[in-house]
Design brief:
The protein is an alpha+beta fold. It contains 15 helices and 15 strands. Among the domains are: 270 residues, no CATH class; 62 residues. The strands form two sheets. It has a 13-stranded antiparallel sheet with strand order 1-2-3-13-12-11-4-5-6-10-9-8-7, sandwiched between helices. A two-stranded antiparallel ribbon has the order 14-15. It is extended and about 95 Å long. The N terminus is likely disordered.
Length: 511
């Protein structure tokens, strides 16, 4: 029986997925366009609207149809075709087919910032389905996690989610789409995790709440010296700390952590501060800035920080209300953006400047050709300019809205798109150019070593030297126009007569 190439199957499936769609109802297209446009801003650098209603659904169906044809000629493809036949019902039931349209707009807002809005139009009936609840939570949330952000927070991403809904998708996917053997193996692994954890993974996930955050803090009063490479001096930046948080429904997760890390002979200690249980690892981490993993648990939240200090500041912020949300920098960045949302994104100018400072210092300390190319590309594509952003995500009845201000706007997006072909060519050409330069330097160095060996041989003949006799640079200089140097910055060792001269650069060796 003739076998079908897997590569051919993949190519045909891609072509079917990207094939032009049939005629569409102009009135429905206009309706979807208006639904997206109503959530965007006119009069700026850029507005993009794409009607994608049914695109994923039709693409999946084309792949299923092709897989069915392939299964007729290739028995091994029958199992894959069977799984694909179950896929549409699974995706539809969980909300994957609910997207109707996408849109983005950007309007200059002054001070090098842009007001941006992005919208994913969704079937309103799908708002309560597992995919959307799992990724964004329910509509109109009064989130509690931002209150735990200390005032020195410079980067943060808060998010609303329902882990149990995402876990439901995983479990249903294995059961619905997998083979009975796969499902049995999955259940066996869950049983093993229950033995190891002391409670089932299902139960543990169900104890997780609907919010979380990840953040970076930078001290306003303390600094640390960060090494940037062997060739550069350390640079001073504000002392950083990291903080993660997730809401919980009960103490199951905290009790599990206490069992694993606290107790006689275990690597952590337990204390209580500001009404929270604190677990601190006894050993600091080997990082160039202070780091000692610390966890804090209250009835409704679990915090994990890189230092005990950031945990203390987080708990104090939640208690006093004097954290990031009350700071002038946050109020200025977010202005009138809705605080009743499903997540926020904040990247401060201060964080951008310090990250850029580290990047520039690292490149300055690196004298390689790669670093030189990187510096040139950063300048060429504008990545040497500090970035900042303040945005919120809102789960509305009709879709997901992203709105806020950022230094990256429509003009920059268009410029990046226009320069993309150049970037692709540069990505292909630069490594070849660097390698060619390295090969040229290597060949030049090897030629230098041959000249040194020739001078050593001539000196040995003239002075009656034999194998093993030492030779110095001053001995052979009369036999050279000038003493050569390695173009890559390597150092030469002459070695005795009979032993070839060497260079300490890798690959710069006489055959």
């Amino acid at each position: 029986m003739k076998r079908t190439s897997p590569a051919l199957i993949a190519l045909a499936a891609f072509c079917l997925l990207c094939a032009p769609a049939g005629a569409r109802d102009p009135a429905l297209v206009k309706q979807q366009y208006d639904a997206v446009k109503a959530n965007l801003n006119d009069g700026g650098d850029l507005m993009i609207i794409a009607n994608v209603d049914g695109l994923l659904e039709s693409g999946i169906q084309k792949i299923i149809d092709f897989a069915g044809l392939a299964a007729k000629n290739e028995p091994s493809a029958a199992a894959a075709a069977e799984v694909l036949n179950k896929l549409p019902a699974f995706l539809r039931a969980n909300g994957f087919y609910a997207v109707r349209g996408l849109g983005f707009s950007s309007v200059p807002a002054g001070s090098s910032l842009n007001t941006i809005r992005g919208f994913i139009s969704r079937d309103p009936a799908a708002a309560a389905l597992p995919l959307w609840r799992g990724l964004f939570g329910m509509q109109g949330m009064d989130m509690i996690t931002p209150a735990y952000l200390p005032a020195d927070t410079e980067i943060v991403r808060t998010f609303a989610c329902e882990p149990a809904q995402l876990w439901q998708i995983v479990r249903q996917g294995v059961t619905t789409l997998g083979t009975p053997e796969n499902a049995a193996a999955f259940e066996q692994s869950l049983a093993m995790s229950t033995v190891m954890l002391g409670l089932s993974l299902d139960s543990l996930i169900n104890t997780l709440g609907g919010e979380g955050f990840m953040s970076l803090q930078m001290s306003p009063s303390k600094t640390v010296d960060i090494p940037v490479g062997a060739g550069g001096a350390p640079i001073s930046i504000p002392e950083p700390s990291f903080l993660f948080g997730i809401t919980v429904k009960d103490s199951s997760l905290a009790n599990l952590l206490k069992t694993r890390f606290c107790g006689p002979g275990l690597p952590a200690t337990l204390a209580e501060t500001n009404g929270a249980e604190i677990i601190t690892m006894n050993a600091p981490l080997p990082l160039p800035f202070p780091a000692q993993i610390t966890m804090a648990s209250r009835s409704n939240i679990l915090l994990i920080g890189s230092t005990p200090g950031v945990i203390d500041r987080s708990l104090a912020a939640a208690k006093s209300g004097n954290g990031l949300l009350a700071s002038a920098k946050f109020k200025s960045a977010f202005g009138t953006l809705p605080m009743k949302n499903n997540g926020l994104i904040y990247f401060s100018p201060e964080a951008a400047k310090n990250i850029q400072k580290i990047q520039e210092a690292a490149l300055a300390a690196d004298e390689s050709a790669d670093a030189e190319m990187s510096r040139a590309l950063m300048k060429f594509f504008g990545n040497d300019e500090p970035q900042q952003a303040a945005m919120v995500i809102v789960n509305t009845k009709n879709g997901i809205l992203l709105s806020g201000r950022t230094s990256f706007g429509g003009r920059e997006m268009l410029a990046s798109t226009a320069l993309a072909p150049i970037a692709m060519m540069a990505g292909v050409a630069m490594p070849a150019m660097v390698q060619a330069r390295r090969n040229s330097q290597k060949n030049s160095c090897i030629n230098n070593l041959r000249q040194i060996e020739g001078a050593k041989d001539q000196w040995a003949i003239d002075n009656g030297a034999t194998v093993g006799d030492q030779v110095s640079p001053s001995d052979i200089e009369p036999y050279l126009k000038e003493f050569p140097s390695c173009p890559s910055g390597g150092s030469y060792v002459l070695n005795p007569i009979g032993t070839p001269a060497t260079c300490d650069q890798p690959g710069h060796t006489l055959e």
